[in-house]
What we know:
The chain has 268 residues and is mainly beta. The chain has helices spanning 17-28, 87-92, 155-164, 220-229, and strands at residues 4-14, 31-34, 41-45, 52-57, 76-79, 96-97, 101-102, 106-112, 118-124, 144-152, 169-173, 177-181, 188-193, 213-217, 233-234, 238-240, 243-249, 255-260. It has a single domain (4-260), classed as 2,3-Dihydroxybiphenyl 1,2-Dioxygenase, domain 1, CATH 3.10.180.10. Helices cover 14% and strands 36% of the residues. The protein is globular and about 50 Å long.
Amino acid sequence: MGMFERIERVSLxxxxxxxxxxxxxxxxxxxVAGGEAGTGEAVLKVGDGETLLSLVERHPxxxxxxxxxxxxxxxxxxxxxxxxxxxxDLRARGIRLTETVESPVLKCCEMYDVDDNVVGICYExxxxxxxxxxxxxxxxxxxxxxxxxIPAVDLERAIRWYVGTLGFTLVHHWGGGADLRIGDGETIAxxxxxxxxxxxxxxLSTGEPFSYFTLKAADLEQAKARLEREGAETSPIRRSGPTxxxxxxxPEGWRIGVEEGRLPVFGR
Length: 268
């Protein structure tokens, strides 16, 4: 088994975790999967997907923007089995959407949640390697977290680091980016080549450290020791509820969460 099993969760900064969770449940049909009142965090399940969505209170609040200032690259996206993206349904629920972008293999756009975070929406066409047919007459809005996106000023260097240091598997190099798999997990990590001036970084100058996706480690202490031997910069291990975690930074300064233990997920 490799150092990491999967992407355990993606995270969004919110003003009020309970209010944000209620919005995702009511507007998008997500299910509350964990989190306790007063902790400043709510955990949601996206369809039957294995990767969770964590809503984390941060003050002052600064929403997660597009990765690219030119737009259309979110920090992560949700998979919809609906070829029309259910855009009419989303608009009828008062959800603000960007314009739709389409290619031979996919159709996508972004939405803004109640806290103005940018969240991607993607339908993979039958021509895509990630296409998943749905047997349901009326599929749900979303079934899983499809991918997290990581900007890379130097794509080849980033691929070498994520494969060589983190142990990810390169599954598709498509020129301007690369898709990587983590263990046997269903959510992929996509490196996107981007000019430094175009990166829309989240302002994290105040408050606790924030990582927008978190890896599940088979053994936290072994993972930390191995990463440090490889020269990676890591934070001290800290306890967060039922989990222990630390952060690691990639060569371009992006913070990645690593955790061991299991969030109290209902029904998992």
